[in-house]
Amino acid sequence: MDTVKLNNGVEMPQMGYGVYQVSPAECERCVSDALKVGYRMIDTAQAYHNEEGVGNAVGKSGIDRKEIFLVSKVWISNYGYEKAKASIDESLRKLQTDYIDLMLLHQPFCDRYGAYRALEEAYKDGKLRAIGVSNFYPDHFIDLASNVEIVPAVNQVETHVFDQQTEPQKIMEEFGTRIMSWGPFAEGRNGFFTNPLLAGIGGKYGKSVAQVALRWLIQRGVIIIPKSTHIERMRQNIDIFDFSLADEDMAAIATLDTGRSLFFDHHDAETTRMFMGWK
Prior knowledge:
By secondary structure, this protein is an alpha/beta fold. The protein has helices at residues 24-37, 51-61, 81-95, 112-124, 138-145, 166-174, 196-205, 209-219, 231-238, 247-254, 269-276, and strands at 3-5, 11-13, 17-18, 41-43, 69-74, 102-105, 131-134, 154-158, 178-182, 223-224. It has one domain: NADP-dependent oxidoreductase domain (TIM Barrel), CATH 3.20.20. The protein is built from eleven helices and ten strands. α1 (24-37) crosses α9, α2 (51-61) runs parallel beside α3 and α3 (81-95) packs across α4. Belongs to the aldo/keto reductase family.
């Protein structure tokens, strides 16, 4: 498995398994399957309500904890210094671990500065090996990264062939921050799995549309966390390190960029109201 080095020197797998929308009831089974087929990074969040399932699977796997990279995220209802500090300890308890490898702020709303101070403190105390943010657009990201003691190691944002985040990635790199993709399959939107360009490129390499799209992200230096609840697809998704896309294929895929989200715009008033309703 390829790794990337974060801005504090921590090595992180470039590919992991995401558990967004994996129900608490089946999360333990899915994470156990993912670990069996070779994933060593698991991405969860307080808002997913399945940290316990991740912790159970890791604990029962028999794999040395040091070989597994755990990612979680503080939800906006836990923002502010004191609440975020308490929520980090709660995540540690649910994940059944003494430390979390990477902890992110999940959204750029509410008291993100107070919450980030709690991340910095937990990092200094050894509870977190690295810290960062999620869904921070360039304006939110530059503002926070320029005004904190510990620059985010990672910014996890919607990134896929239809919303490629090329310019935001350059801005993150100015700060030494790694881009991490959520929704690398765009959740199947915009005809993702039947896209003729991706299918044609896949035919050249004997790979699926999904594998081509994931490989394209890997070659851009993007950290990825594809999700499937089926072990065979987990195996297919991880089987992308035995080929490389040619420069012309990388350039062709770049033409698919729409430059906009397929889900929601964090600058939109109605999106902000939606998140305020989830506090």
